[in-house]
Amino acid sequence: MSNTIVIGAQWGDEGKGKIVDLLTEKVDVVVRAQGGNNAGHTVISDGKEYILHLIPSGILWPGKMCVIGNGVVMDPVALLGEIDGLAEKGISVTPENLQISDRAHLVMPFHRQLDAFREASKGDNKIGTTKRGIGPTYGDKIDRVGFRLHDLVGDPVKFSERLHKRISDCNVLFEGAGMETLDAEESGKELLEAAERLAPYSTDTVGTLHAYMKEGRSLLFEGAQGTYLDIDQGTYPYVTSSNTTSGGACTGSGVPPQKIDRVVGVTKAYTTRVGEGPFPTQNDNLADRFHKMGREFGATTGRKRRCGWLDLVLVRYAAMVNGFDDLAITILDGLDDCEEIPICTHYELNGKKLMLPPASAEDFANVVPVYESLPGWQSDTTGVKNFEDLPANAKAYLERIEKETETRVSMVGVGPSRDQTIVR
Ligand code: IMP
Fold first, then answer.
1. Share of the chain above pLDDT 70, in %
2. Which phi-psi region, left, alpha or beta, contains residue 224 (left: φ > 0; alpha: ψ -120 to 50)?
3. How far is the CA of 132 from the centre of ligand 1 (A)?
4. What pTM does this model have?
5. Which atom of ligand 1 lies at the shortest distance from residue 134's CA?
6. What is the mean pLDDT of the chain?
7. Structural domains of the chain sorted by starting position, each given as residue range(s) with its CATH number in brackets
8. Is 283 exposed, middle or buried (0-12, 13-18, 19+ CB in 10 A)?
9. Cα 275 to middle of ligand 1, angstroms
10. What pLDDT, on a 0 to 100 scale, did the predictor assign at position 17?
């Protein structure tokens, strides 16, 4: 038995889906422990592209169990849509391969509307959320007024009563803001239908995961978003509302830290971010280049991602707070054409050298990234299968990342397909 956590070292979209897919071969169970359908994990399997939002990507492998843990916020209607979408592509999702924690909090229609309302009322200070209702759902969880899966499937009548009350309270707010109000009857009906279909998946996943571990089965935790969207360690307030760092895998699943054998960090060979907030190494020329190639559009919202050079301050701190054992570097091929590759080694702020990120978003926005320029390799890496066969300058680039982060690079992505990952 060996349990692994996969975590993004940047602002999400690092290509974790592909690394998780690769590691899935050797595990029995794939677990999501935080986030919701704000995530979008793109996996190409047997030439077909799948974008998964809530369901762990292990679902694409026959014989693997997938678990949505207690730390996830789950939109029941969106989840059923995802299950149906997979069925159309020939992937069958049943309680035999998907279990959902009865403690998971549910994203309700009023949470989605509240997300839009709060974003609109922030004006220029908006977060740039995915508008999937994630923040308001976690807010209710912390406020101890949330709706959990066991509430929906266990006592639908009481659930409906609570839902009606919350919707009518929220409608007063929405009406005042000139926004569309919600129809409590319609929402209730839709959710009760969803409850019937979801009931067979709802279970005590903590008990199940511990039983699996006793049997010697291996678990893989599929992180969603990335370290800098973490509610504690990220670029607050421009973050998501969950703990995206490795500790979140434990609290969000009920699997304790001493059962974790390996934490893999995933970082692109450069940096991207969607939504608002500081991004010291942002570079619009690099973004234009990727967008013209049809790359770097968000998997959930289709928004253009902001792009920039690799920021080692971010990856260094991510290695510390997550305890990375090793790193997977994705989309190295994205830099194949570059003559020179700037790499940010540290920041300067008011004449001071910073090796780690500052706490305040204002300071983060004002830091000056200090770069070192490394020579590019200007050759196609998409067909390379072994680390040794990479161009010398590509190897030097990767070794520089290892040195600055004190973490070994164990995997390198050179293209979107399953077989375009070099395992060292
Ligand atoms: P929320 O999670 O929808 O509340 O959005 C908060 C911030 O996290 C926004 O900047 C989003 O763009 C960002 N975000 C949320 N999920 C993802 C993801 O899976 N990839 C990249 N960014 C994300």
1. 100
2. beta
3. 9
4. 0.96
5. 4
6. 96
7. 4-101+201-263 (3.40.440.10), 106-198 (1.10.300.10), 268-423 (3.90.170.10)
8. middle
9. 7
10. 87
